[in-house]
Design goal:
Helix 1 packs antiparallel against helix 2. The protein starts with 14 loop residues before the first strand and ends with a helix. The protein is globular. By secondary structure, the protein is of the alpha+beta class. The protein has a six-stranded antiparallel beta barrel. A hairpin with a 7-residue loop joins strand 5 and strand 6.
Length: 192
């Protein structure tokens, strides 16, 4: 017996979250190698930080083979530095309150609200997302696939990522996994 029921197939797990979101509509003649977000000196500092992080990880493997206690101490210090950096970022709060908004997020795309005529189906957009509490910052280029209103004062734009680096995809995956763990722990605590 065959059933012709429509099924929704999802390639990625989705979460409803509140993130920092900035978007820029890209013109058809946009140069794909340039970022539509002004970076100034921050971009070079991020690149330098990534290189330092890669160097630290490769050296840490060698230290762990020789001295596990030293390796654990270095990992703890690295975590402390990350926490201090997040505190500083929250205190500086580069995003305005209106830049933090509810979204539906997955490794495949994001749904978000925007003013009614800001975007249309087929538009290509550049997205910069800040994922709390770690404050991972992810940039992607996406295409608007669908627009819905779902009883919202502004339309909801459903975008599929078209250009997303593997490190940024991993940041999103890690964020989603941590979100799931936090919510599971919250639900368990409320159930006790």
């Amino acid at each position: 017996m065959s059933t012709d029921l429509p099924t929704e197939r999802r390639d990625y797990f989705r979460i409803d979250d509140r993130i920092g979101l900035e978007f820029r509509k890209l013109l058809p003649d946009h140069d794909d190698s340039s970022s539509p977000f002004e970076e100034s000196h921050i971009g070079s500092l991020r690149t330098e930080l990534r290189q330092i992080d890669l160097d630290l990880r490769s050296q840490l493997a060698g230290v762990a083979e020789r001295d596990r206690a030293m390796s654990n101490l270095i990992k703890t210090l690295s975590s402390k530095i990350d926490t201090v950096a997040r505190i500083m970022a929250f205190e500086q709060n580069p995003l305005q309150p209106e830049d933090w908004q509810p979204v539906t997020l997955s490794e495949g795309g994001v749904s978000f609200t925007a003013p009614e005529n800001a975007l249309a189906i087929g538009d290509k957009v550049a997205l910069r997302m800040t994922l709390p509490p770690e404050l991972f910052q992810v940039e992607a280029k996406a295409r608007i696939l669908h627009v819905s209103d779902a009883d919202s004062p502004e339309p909801i734009f459903h975008a599929e990522f078209k250009e997303l680096s593997e490190p940024d995809r991993q940041k999103i995956a890690k964020h989603i996994m941590r979100w799931q763990i936090r919510h599971r722990q919250q639900n368990e605590a409320e159930g006790d």
